[in-house]
Automatic annotation (TrEMBL):
GO terms for molecular function: ATP binding; phosphorelay sensor kinase activity. It comes from Desulfosporosinus metallidurans. It is a multi-pass membrane protein. It is an enzyme of class 2 (transferase). InterPro entries: HAMP_dom (IPR003660), HATPase_C_sf (IPR036890), HATPase_dom (IPR003594), His_kinase_dom (IPR005467), HisK_dim/P_dom (IPR003661), HisK_dim/P_sf (IPR036097), HssS/ArlS-like (IPR050398), Sig_transdc_His_kin-like_C (IPR004358). It catalyses: ATP + protein L-histidine = ADP + protein N-phospho-L-histidine. This is histidine kinase.
Length: 359
């Protein structure tokens, strides 16, 4: 039989369920009918009081009523089954429509059903997936826009100055070369931060990749590497670090502390920084506190977003690319920890937690 004749079978789960159910009903009715007919014939022969013609009439009448009852039973069962199963299949049809819209970039949730069965959980999981994909798509668009904005200004400046130098409109001076060098350093820093963010997003540290490390050793080593810069900026350091073993990635924790200290160097306004590390139950908490640019309470959570900066003008003299804290959040998320910010006017405490090795 050509495959096109089975189109409804391949495309409709409702047709499959109805046909299977009708087939089962027909077999059951047939077996029951044959059994009843044979039993009736047996009784008719054992207690026969009529002649042979009456016996044949009895057989035909019995067969007629069995066939009629079977057909009626199949029709009634088919109608009831259709409406009951259709109600069951309808959410799946809506789910398929929503999936097609998602493929076209329309992230519309499927209509929820008041049920906690397999179909209800499937629709709930689909809606959660749709919401996450929508958030990811919005972040992707925002990130592309922010990268284009960050690259446009320095590239425009460099291109303009180089064109002016090549045509003789302006003459090369040390100040001009320093400006071009700053623009080049900004581009290099942006590309490096994007590279770091991409590396950590692609790593996806598994439980087996987290090792037992001495957190105070990582903190003190990283702090030591910033000693010269902190002294040159006349920033006093107060460290209170409790010894403990954590479950983590050494390079990742070092990157987190490095980004926090770079943040201190970039935004410091008080000439001091305090670093605390202590155990809290089954986690180890690190807090870096200093004075900096005021952060509104409603913006505290947004500072960990990619390319977010308090300076709406995006002036590179008062802010970086806005990826340092985003890298911190990505690393700590992969350590099954948390990050946060506590602001008291211009005093800010950036904190993060990681699990203890013996937790």
């Amino acid at each position: 039989m050509p495959s096109k004749n089975w189109f409804f079978w391949r495309r409709s789960i409702l047709a499959k369920l109805i046909l299977i159910n009708l087939l089962i009903i027909a077999i059951v009715i047939w077996l029951a009918g044959v059994s009843v007919k044979d039993f009736a014939c047996l009784l008719s022969k054992q207690y026969q009081v009529a002649d042979g013609a009456s016996s044949n009439l009895f057989d035909r009448t019995m067969q007629f009523y069995l066939i009629r009852a079977s057909i009626l039973a199949v029709i009634v069962a088919g109608i009831l089954y259709y409406f009951l199963v259709r109600k069951l299949i309808l959410p799946l049809q809506h789910l398929g429509t929503s999936a097609q819209k998602m493929a076209r970039g329309e992230f519309q949730p499927c209509r929820e059903i008041p049920s906690e069965d397999e179909i209800g959980r499937l629709i709930s999981d689909f809606n959660h997936l749709s919401s996450k994909l929508q958030q990811t798509e919005e972040l992707r668009k925002k990130m592309v826009s922010d990268i284009a904005h960050e690259l446009r200004t320095p590239l425009t400046n460099i291109t303009g100055y180089l064109e002016a130098l090549s045509t003789g409109v302006i003459q090369g001076e040390p100040e001009l070369y320093r400006s071009l060098h700053e623009e080049a350093l900004h581009l290099t820093g942006l590309v490096e931060e994007l590279h770091q963010l991409n590396i950590w997003e692609s790593k996806r540290l598994g439980q087996g990749e987290l090792q037992k490390i001495s957190v105070e050793n990582v903190l003190e080593t990283t702090l030591k590497s910033f000693e010269l810069e902190l002294n040159n900026r006349e920033i006093k350091v107060a460290a209170n670090i409790q010894a403990a073993d954590i479950l983590g990635n050494r390079e990742g924790i070092k990157q987190v502390i490095t980004n926090l200290l770079k943040n201190v160097l970039q935004y410091d306004r008080g000439g001091w920084v305090k670093i605390e590390g202590k155990k809290e139950g089954h986690i180890y908490k690190v807090v870096v506190t200093n004075l900096g640019q005021p952060i509104p309470d409603d913006k505290a959570d947004q500072v960990f977003e990619r390319f977010y900066r308090l300076d709406s003008s995006r002036n590179r003299k008062t802010g970086g690319a806005g990826l340092g804290l985003a890298i911190i959040k990505e690393i700590i998320d992969q350590h099954r920890g948390e990050v946060g910010l506590i602001s008291r006017q211009d005093e800010h405490s950036f904190w993060f937690t990681v699990p203890l090795a013996d937790a």
